[in-house]
Design goal:
Elements lengths: L2 H22 L3 H29 L1
Helix pairs in contact: 1-2
Length: about 55
């Protein structure tokens, strides 16, 4: 597991938390920021996954 995978997973989880808080306080802005963070995290994790595949080749 590389740093991109770890950071991407952490960012995804943080985004889910932020989205949940946004829903709890009825803040569309926080929900949107949370969703954006999730997308960034998933992209970073995918990059890390690709690096692992290439490293294994």
């Amino acid at each position: 597991m590389n740093t991109d995978q770890v950071k991407g997973t952490a960012k995804d989880i943080a985004g889910k938390v932020q989205e949940g808080v946004g829903k709890a306080i009825d803040s569309k802005e926080q929900q949107a920021k949370g969703l954006e963070k999730q997308v960034e995290g998933k992209g970073q994790k995918t990059l890390g996954d690709a690096k692992e595949i290439v490293k294994g080749e």
